[in-house]
Amino acid sequence: MEAGPGRPQFNLSLQLQETKMAIELTPGLISRLPHRERWFYNSRVRSILFQVLAIAAVVGFIYYFLSNAFHNMETRGISTGFHFLDNKAGFGIIQSLIPYDETYTYGRTFLVGLLNTLLVSVLGIVLATALGFVLGVARLSRNWLVSRVAAVYVELFRNIPLLLQIFFWYFAVLRTLPTPRQSISLGEAVFLNIRGLYIPAPVPEVGFGWLGVSLALAIGLAIAVSVWARRRQRLTGQTFPSFWVGLAIIVVLPLLHFYALGAPLQWDLPTLKGFNFKGGITIIPELAALLVALSIYTAAFIAEIVRSGILAVSKGQHEAAESLGLSHGQTLRLVIVPQALRVIIPPLTSQFLNLTKNSSLATAIGYPDLVSVFMGTTLNQTGQAVEVIAMTMAVYLLISLVISYLMNVYNAKKALVER
């Protein structure tokens, strides 16, 4: 039909083509339209559901275990709860960092054991870290004798069980020392015998507080010198012996206080009275044997960690430091070790945790740590097995978490920060 005036012209073939294209595109458009998905096909919902079920299973298992344990104790007439901590202990402890005697409570024995555990753990971590770093560097020494001695040390002490090393230092070394009357003496102040090491104890007098003020001031000055030295090196590239200067300030300033204002500190010297020494500070052989064994054993593993961390630093860093004229010691301290710490810190954390948990072997030689005093004697006297064991496990868990947190914070500061 021909188009007349005022009538639109229709192109039939064009309309058919457009209709065909619309039909072909319709399924694709429908597939793209949002549709409701069933909840069990949603991966996020499934993951949350599985986590909830896992938590519910763990909580149910713990509840079943505790309820069964409490029911069994109730049928046997065993009381539950923590009221036993207020009862009088009635037994002595050979070492306590806080006042303690037989009239104190079981709660006090818990604190005594906890402090003794923290004491050997902290001292062991410090000594093992220092010795391990020295041995790790010595393993890479260019001196054949030094590197071989360090290698023999590592292979010897890390392959002997820790418990045997504790027995060796306690029974074969310290228990063979002379009696108090035949003590090995260093002058008239230090004595070593089968019952321990006796050293003078400081006794503060009037004016001792000012000595603390001078010591705090010296530490503040040492920190200020260290900050100034780092800023100066950053700006000029020149190094400054801030460590030795700071150490001299910390030592000299309190000594000047002693000479200027008089010594506000007296010394309680150990003296032989009867069959043993009285006065001073006593380091019992159980503490010495445990501390030496833990430090030597853990240092062997730390030495290998340090060696692997140093080897992880590329050889080009050594060559660049030597080309700048740095000595071998400066290269290690300023270039190699700061980079190696990124590799050293994570496994070093595991060794710190192992040392803390291995300190529980102290019960084998009678050192009054938490396991020996609280989970040993206190448990035997009270019979509160669930409460005592739960408290002991919670303490070791808390100590481990604190160590991990502090090491993770330090590791985050040493990690590479990308721009």
From TrEMBL:
Q: What PROSITE patterns does this protein's entry cite?
A: ABC_TM1
Membrane topology term reads: Multi-pass membrane protein
Q: Where are the transmembrane segments?
A: 48-66, 110-138, 150-172, 208-229, 241-261, 281-306, 385-407
Question: Which stretches make up the ABC transmembrane type-1 domain?
Answer: 114-407
InterPro entries (UniProt xref): AA_ABC_transptr_permease_3TM, ArtM/GltK/GlnP/TcyL/YhdX-like, MetI-like, MetI-like_sf
* Keyword annotations of the record: Amino-acid transport, Cell membrane, Membrane, Transmembrane, Transmembrane helix, Transport
Chief subcellular site? membrane
**Would the keyword Transferase be found if you checked this record's keyword annotation?**
no
Compartments (UniProt record): Cell inner membrane; Cell membrane
Tagged with keyword Cell division: no
NCBIfam families in UniProt: HEQRo_perm_3TM (TIGR01726)
Family designation = Belongs to the binding-protein-dependent transport system permease family. HisMQ subfamily.
Q: What is this protein called?
A: Amino acid ABC transporter permease
